[in-house]
Amino acid sequence: MGDVIKETSYFDLHLDLDEKVIKVVQRWKYNWIVYTGEFEDWSYVEKKNFHDEVDRLIWKQWSYKYVTVSTITTESYFPEGSKVWKTLDKTRFKVVFDIKWVTKDPHWNVNIRKVTSLNDYRSHVSFSNSTINLTWLDTSEHSLVEGISQNIVNHEYGHTIGADDEYSRRYVGTECEIYEYEQYFTEEGLEKRFKHASDQRSLMNIGNELRSRFISNIDTELDDFFTGVEFHTFLE
After folding, report:
1. How do strand 131-135 and strand 124-126 relate by DSSP bridges?
2. Residue ranges in 139-186 assigned as alpha helix (H)
3. Which residues have a Cβ under 8 Å from the Cβ of 178 and sit 6 or more positions away?
4. Staple partner for 93: which of 55, 68, 157, 165, CB 3.0–4.6 Å?
5. DSSP conformational letter for 13
6. DSSP state of 153
7. Which long-range contacts (CB under 8 A, 24 or more apart) does 123-131 make?
8. How far apart are alpha carbons 204 and 1 in whole angstroms?
9. Cα–Cα distance, 14 to 25 (Å, whole number)
10. Exposure string (b/e) for 100-123, b if CB count within 10 Å is 16 or more?
11. Which pTM does this prediction carry?
12. Hey, is 149 helix, strand or coil?
């Protein structure tokens, strides 16, 4: 039956009905920045090595960890017993995640900065202008609490597929950042923001572990593939 592709602003979903795989694909257009005068401009080898490492890290952390089950509902217009019915009713799909280095038509513009330490720049994702801001040190592990470490690239990638920050107020940043952050959200939004603050090992907190809730936005997008087919994605 081949692939069915759904395009969104932040990623494309490739549904391979034959191989039973759902691929989450993002196109990244890089902007290579030298943050201080201590460094030379990015060489092609440095650029390629960085992209290859980010691609590897995201694939290793996220791919084949989630499963999507599709189910035909009573609203389906697919006849029972048809090829589509047999393909999509109670079918398990593996979910994989991939990024593509592009020079045009990106989902995300990605600013990569050469810095001397993680304290030089706070990496973040901006949905308002579809921008990911990273440093070349973000591919390594760092730790805010003894015994718990995190890979920044994988944390920021989580935002690009719709997962929210979960760490407590103490890790938001400076007092000014906390004030601006809390002015931006309603009380209800803040309550949701810190709902999982105690789950420190969560990747969207200060840890490196995946949770089923990270994928809820993709679940929503999957439900628009076919009328009368529901998709449920969870951490296996």
Report:
1. antiparallel
2. 152-160, 175-184
3. 169, 172
4. 68
5. E
6. H
7. 123/152, 123/156, 124/156, 125/156, 125/159, 125/160, 127/10, 130/9, 130/10, 130/106
8. 36
9. 7
10. ebeeeebbbebbbbbbeeeeebeb
11. 0.89
12. strand
Residue 213's region, left for phi above 0, alpha for psi from -120 to 50, else beta, is: alpha
Query: Which residue has 């490739």 as its token pair?
Result: 14
Tokens for 123? 């990496």
User: What's the count of helices (H) and strands (E) in the chain, helices before strands?
Assistant: 6, 11
Q: Are 88 and 115 in contact (CB under 8 A)?
A: no
Structure tokens at 151: 């890979």
Least confident of 186-190, 209-213, 228-232: 186-190
C-alpha angle 88-89-93 in degrees, rounded to nearest 5:
55
Which letter does DSSP use for residue 120 in this model? G
